[in-house]
Amino acid sequence: MKRRVLWPLVGVLLVAGCAQAADLVLPPAASTFRIVEFNAEWLFDGTNDSIDHWGSPARAQQHLEAVAATLQSLDADYISLAEVEGPVMLSKLDALLGDGYSQIFVQGTDTSTGQDVAALSNLVPEQTPSRTNERIAYPVARSLLSCGSGSYAVSKNYCADFDLAGTPVTIIGAHLLAYPDRCDRSIQREAQATALANLARNALARGREVIVLGDLNDFDPAAIDAAGNHPTSRVLSILKDLDPAVQGDELVNVCATLPQEDRYTDWYDRDGDGIDDGAREHSQIDFILVSRGLAERVRYVAIAHTTPAGSVSDHWPVVLDLSLPAEVAANSP
Question: Regarding beta strands 116-121 and 102-105, do their DSSP bridges make them parallel or antiparallel, or are they unpaired?
Answer without folding.
Answer: antiparallel
